[in-house]
Design brief:
single chain, alpha+beta, five-stranded antiparallel β-sheet
Length: 178
Amino acid sequence: MSERIFSGSEVSLIEMLDARESRAQRQERLLNEYPDAALLLATMNIPGPVKNSTTLSRVFSQLVEQIKKELTAYQVFTTREDNLKTGPEFYAVVKVSPLTLKEKMIDIEGNHPYGRLLDLDIHYISGGLQSVSRQDIELPPRKCLICQKNAKECGRERRHSIAEMQTKIIEIIEDEQV
């Protein structure tokens, strides 16, 4: 199974940068259409040149189902799910405070078996596109999958190889499927 997890098409740096730009434009369009709402963007946190595969898409779909369950208590204006070469994406525009939405999504990140593989970003409009961080709700930064130190610092300093991180991702996915 492990070889199938990263068996998708490789993505170039240019493709990743283009995808990031497209996401930013989509976020602004959605929030301009629903300026009093919060926007949830869910993506996978997958290191290396392969950002999507059949297995990763299946894992992402399971996470999206959990997200949708968590959102049933709120008015959801619109959702969008894209299964792209650069990685799956899910958008939800929700009538709820951005801080409340962030708290709900952090619960998924921390408690769902695949939650560590997910990036759940919350955005809103206030004099431009804004985002809610873990620190905004007085939570510590996310921990690294490998060493449990600050994940952003590990990423910035490239403390762990892509192979190490992919091995951990394989463990997470295979452990849940046993």
